[in-house]
Amino acid sequence: MEGVCIMELKDVLKFETFWMDWMPAEAAIAVARDGDYVYFRSGALNASIRIGQPVERGSIASQVMESGQRVERQVTDFLPGETCFGIGYPITGGAVVVLLSSAYIMKQKEPVAFLTGKTEDTWHPVPVEDILYIESQHKKTWFYTEEGTYSTAYTLKQLRELLPDTFLAVHRSYIVNIRCIREITRDISSGFLLKLKDEALLPVSQNYTADVRKRLGF
């Protein structure tokens, strides 16, 4: 089992102080041995793990114990209604599982500085600050600058995770560069419209209104 480090439980627990030093305070840590959880530190997660709780089949701890290998994946075992990211490590007769919230993982990722857009058979690296807005249309994603329109292989969902916080989802089909908003008005149905510096008008859908108002402070 190349790359796998299997430790005795007593040795794992000796490292508790070490874990506290190098792991994020937000991290939850669980140790399972012989089919039950024998140690748990909740960190900032409201995880539902109890000492003595049996390890459920299919959980990340169960997968580690069955395979004897490190396992990384998103998990929903411990946070009802929420997803977190888990890394499981094998120990003799059990597993150590480290859990981090998806929000924490996303905060640690560096946002992209540019997007590469395509026009016909040419690709153009474009700094994100030059992008006015991004649109999903007919199962394709397009972004717009003052110089032109480009297609990208990313979906809007992926871009919401990759772009810096100067970008804001305002509709299921639109992400806007906040710095390019010239004014906010209402349409005839009292919904909000964003007028950009290139005179483009983007609707704010009802599902996004509360978040837009909170982010833009109005």
From TrEMBL:
Residues covered by the HTH LytTR-type domain: 121-217
InterPro entries: LytR-like, LytTR_DNA-bd_dom
Gene3D superfamilies: 2.20.25.10, 2.40.50.40
Pfam families: LytTR
One GO MF term attached to the UniProt entry: DNA binding
Protein name: HTH LytTR-type domain-containing protein
